[in-house]
Structures are given as structure tokens and as C-alpha cells.
Amino acid sequence: MKLFITTTALIACLFISCKTDTKNPTIDAQVAKEQHTLVGVWQMVGYYNYRDNKIVDSFLSSDAYKQIKVYTPTKVMWSRLNKLDSTDFFGYGDYDTTDSTLHENLVFGSNVVNKYIDGEHGHDFYFELDLDKDSYSQIELDENGDRILAENYMRIE
Fold this sequence. Notes:
- The chain has one domain (38-155): Lipocalin.
- The relative contact order is 0.16.
- The chain is built from 3 helices and 9 strands, in the order H-H-E-E-E-E-E-E-H-E-E-E.
- Mean pLDDT is 84; it is low at 6-22 and 28-33.
- The protein is α+β, with helices and mostly antiparallel strands.
- Strand 8 and strand 9 (147-155) form a beta hairpin.
- The chain is globular and about 35 Å long.
- An 8-stranded antiparallel barrel has the order 1-3-4-5-6-7-8-9.
């Protein structure tokens, strides 16, 4: 009986003291990606203007100029308020992302936006994406891949 208790205690100690490495880089990356998602409601907080891929100017949003974007798992809708202008701006469509890119495909929008997307520019908008848990920037690139303008957002829901 003493041998049984000693053997059982020894086996229990071995199980308790054995440390298995539960870190799995694939799972850790997936968790991190899930924590950094566009799904939610975002308010624009400002812009950056670039020259030679460096920020040369920045502007903060104000109560007179607001933009809100709403992302579901597959859809995007945005609306812009500009109290200094009576033109309505809103758009709706699909989107997809990679770790560093955002592609929005607008299906329709306000009259001004519809003229823009039905014209020379088209429905597809491609951006460099810099995404954190509660903030993101969508950065417009020129034909050479150089940064032009960033819209900067903060998560509000």
C-alpha cells in the first residue's frame, strides 16, 4: 500500500511539474488579428498630408466636419457631415482587408459620390491600412505607391 501511495504521488508530481509549451504562433497571430478588426463604428479624427512619404501637414476633425464609418464583417457604410457645405456625402459597399491593405468597393452613395464612382474613378478604392485595436489609418497612394493622404479614425463602438 505504501508503494502504491508513493508511486501515485510521484506520478502526480511529474504531471504537475511538467510544463508544456502551449504557445502556438499561428493561434497567437489569429487572436491578435481578431483583436485588430475593422468591424465596428469609427469616427475620423483627422488627416495627414504626405510629401515624399513623410507627413508634412495634419488637420484635426471638428464639430463642423465629421465623418463616421461603420464596418460589419463584409460591408462598409460611411457618412460625412460638413456644416460649411450643403452637399451630402455617404457611401455603401463591400470591403476586404489584408494585414496592410484595405479595399472598398462602393455600390452606391449620395448623388455626388455616385457621380464620382460612376465616372472615371470607378467603384474600387484601395488603401494602405495601418490598423490597431482602437484606431486605424487608411492611406491613399499615388500611381507610384507613394503616400498622399491619410484619413485617421478612432473606434467609438
